[in-house]
Amino acid sequence: MWLGVISVLPEMFDAVSKDGVFSRALAAGHLSLNCFNPRDYTRDKHRTVDDRPYGGGPGMVMMVAPLLAALLDAKAQAPQRTRVVFMSPQGRRFDQQNAIASKGDEGIILICGRYEGIDERFISAYVDEEWSIGDYVLSGGELPAMVVMDAIARHLPGTLGNQQSVIDESHLDGTLDYPQYTRPEKVGTESVPEELMSGDHNRTKRFRRSQALKRTLERRPDLLTGRVFDPLDRQLLTACAQQLGPHSVEKDGEKKQDY
Ligand code: 9D3
Fold this sequence. Notes:
The strands form 4 sheets. Strands 2-1-6-5-7 form a 5-stranded parallel sheet. The protein is elongated, with a radius of gyration of 23 Å. The chain has helices at 14-18, 21-27, 64-77, 96-102, 120-126, 142-153, 160-170, 201-219, 231-244, and strands at residues 2-6, 32-36, 50-51, 61-62, 83-93, 107-112, 129-132, 186-187, 190-191, 249-251, 255-257. The chain has 9 helices and 11 strands. The protein is α/β, with parallel strands linked by helices and 259 residues long. Helix content is 37%, strand content 17%. The chain has 2 domains: 2-153, 3-Layer(aba) Sandwich (Alpha/beta knot); 186-244, Trp Operon Repressor, Chain A (Orthogonal Bundle), CATH 1.10.1270. The longest helix has 19 residues, at 201-219. Bound molecules: ligand 9D3. Ligand 9D3 is lined by residues 87-89, 113, 116-117, 132-134, 136-141, 144.
C-alpha cells in the first residue's frame, strides 16, 4: 500500500517508522510512507503556509496554495484511485471496520491540519473523505493519521497483526479480550486462575470465553445489545448475569443499568 502524508511536521512520523508493526511492514515492502511538507512548496522567504481567518477570530488557517502544491505532487507519485482523506475533528469516526475495509486500497493520502484548520475550499475541491479518531481535541492531524496508519498496516500481509486479523474480524462487534497471565504462577497473593493451569484445552477455552463475555457485559454492554448468541455464549452469559446480579452493569463508567 502506498501511503502519502501531507504535513508541516513530517518528523513526527519517525515515531512509527522506526520500530513496531508499521516499520516492519515498511521494511518488508508491503507499505511505503511518503511525506510531503507544504512548506517545501512555498516560494516566500518565510515559507508561509498559514494566514489570518477571513471574518476574524483567533488563530491561523492553512492556505490553499502550499497544501495544493503538496497534494498534486503526492497524487503524481501515488497509484491511480488513491483516496484523499483529511484528518479532521469534523470527520466520520474511523473504526475497526474502516481499518479492515482500507487494507485492499492501493493508496491513501492523509492530510494533516495544524493551527485552527484549513481553507474550506481546499476540502470541497480536493478531499474525498474526512476522518476523525474520536471526540477529544488534539493539536493537529498527525497523531490521528498515525493511529489510522497503524490500524490499517496491522492488516497488511506479513505483519504480526495479519495472522490475528481473521480472529479480529470474527470479534469485530464482539467481545473484549479475556485476561492474560504469564509467569510467575503467584504475584503477591494472586494466583493464576486454576482453569488455565489444568491443561484441559476445553476448560481453558470455556473459561476464557466466559471471562470475555463477563468483562464485556460489565464494561461495554453496548457491544452486546442486539446480538444473537450461540448456545454456549448464551449459557455463559446467563451464568455471568446470575453471578453479577441485577443492577450490576456499569453504564458510562458510573451509573448502573438493568439488563
Ligand atoms: C474542535 C476545536 N476546533 C474549534 C476551536 C479547533 C481545532 C481543534 C483541534 C482545530 C483543529 C484541531 C486539530 N485536530 C485535528 O486535526 C484532528 C483530530 C482531533 O483533534 N481529534 C480527533 N480526531 C482528529 S483528526 C484531526
